[in-house]
Amino acid sequence: MDKPNFPPNFLENLKHEPGFDDINFTNAHQNQDAPTSIRLNPFKPSAIKTGEQVPWCPEGFYLDSRPSFTFDPLFHAGCYYVQEASSMFIGHILKQIKPDGPVKILDLCAAPGGKSTLLNSAMQPDDLLVANEIIKTRVPVLADNLSRWGTANTIVTNNDPKDFSRLKGFFDIILVDAPCSGSGMFRKDPDAMNEWSENNVALCHQRQERILADIYPCLKEGGYLIYSTCSYSHQENEDILDWLCEEFELESLQIDIGPDWGIVETQSPQQQAWGYRFYPGKVKGEGLFAACLQKTGIQEAMTNFKNKEQQKVPAKEIELVRPYIITPEQFYYFKVNDDWMAINRAHLESLNILQRNLYIKKSGVRIGKLAGKDLIPDHEFALSIIINKDAVLQTELDREQAIQYLRRDNLVVDIVDKGWSLMNYEGQSLGWAKLLPNRINNYYPKEIRIFSKAE
Question: Is residue 455 over pLDDT 70?
Fold first, then answer.
């Protein structure tokens, strides 16, 4: 590998950061490739070959080499997520702080969805995840990745952080994976070196303060704030922790870590707030900083909110939809235009509040449309874990057929029954096709089909 061309003053600045080892760090960037790691979906068990386990994530595994995920049907089925190993530490924090009983969690800067699916994996159906993305063009990939994960206890929003200040004391846990200068990604994305500068670090620090100030009111009293960046700069990490503890009623929490994990535990200079640094060469992963704080101050709660009236739907139509759901009594059914939706019944009140205050792009699972007494099923529904597979046709595909299906090519399979069929690979659903007497209509979504012709 070529010697990394670090930006001017970068290494000199880094020499003063806690736990930094110049020789080890440079060697990792010069002689070690970024490891490939995946995280399994606990809701979709499958026979995926894995390697060494990520120490801080039971569902995380390193792979010996990087395969072509594009041509793995189980990837498209949502059986795993390709995620950088260090970032999986956020799930380790969540498991230590998550209280008993239902919680509402906000992932503020959520696209593309790695940390959202990570949080969701540790949640129960009565817990609610709101995954927000500020940049509108990044929302579709976030929604797609959460749809692949398959749960119905998620809501995707597209809002500025200041919009959440209206939801006073609403969330029990907030993750702010803040926009940053990106130095932790230098090995994985060398082009990021060209964008790094001391001025950009200072601008990111200001942006991070503004985001955190905007989001603070919607964290409930006793709730937890998880803060993370992929930067090594103390201005974006320990200095932010000092500012949080000085400006707001927040108390730093120490997180249990393994002595052999290679994570550097730090404390901020003024408030001694705990932080956790990941350096390539010390950990098998990329650069990360993470910390957790608990809100100790009294938070005014939301009052005088009015429920937004849902579109009234005929009871007869609901009865046509319910048989397709594996535990129909656990869900609330509603319509968005002509599309039937389902969300865990426990989240009806939260859905009403969020609809009144935020711009929602996805809520629960989109089931499909009714045409008379027949359901025209949606792709989201095929990938969900709430579908009653006994109520629909299923067609098992081999790998070659699965790739053809994912490319939206013509399929040739033996047709026994006619109608809508789940197209499965190794028992995992990929999407829908319509089986007709003399052909198969492939309904895999055009916008996410495999475009590449070569594996």
Answer: no
The catalytic position among 109, 218, 230, 292 is: 230
Note whether residue 93 is domain-resident: yes
Which residue, 295, 327, 356, sits at the end of a domain? 295
Q: Would you say residue 348 lies in a domain?
A: no
Provide the strand spans (E) within 312-380.
331-336, 339-344, 360-363, 365-371, 374-377
Domain-embedded: residue 337: no
User: For residue 309, is pLDDT > 80?
Assistant: no
- Report how many domains make up the chain: 2
Asked if the structure places residue 304 within a domain, the reply is no
Rounded CA separation 175/99 (Å): 15
Highest mean pLDDT among 5-19, 302-316, 431-445: 431-445
Query: 362, exposed or middle or buried, with CB in 10 Å at 0-12, 13-18, 19+?
Result: buried
CATH number of the domain enclosing 141: 3.40.50.150
Angle at 47 between CA 46 and CA 53, to 5 degrees: 95
Query: pTM for the whole thing?
Result: 0.95
Q: Which residues contact 368 (CB under 8 A, 6 or more apart)?
A: 339, 340, 375, 376, 377, 378, 381
The residue that leads in pLDDT, 313 or 386, is 386
Mean pLDDT of the chain: 94
Q: What's the domain range around 447?
A: 392-455
Residue closest to 98 by CA, chosen among 287, 292, 343, 250? 292
Would you call 218 a catalytic residue per the annotation? no
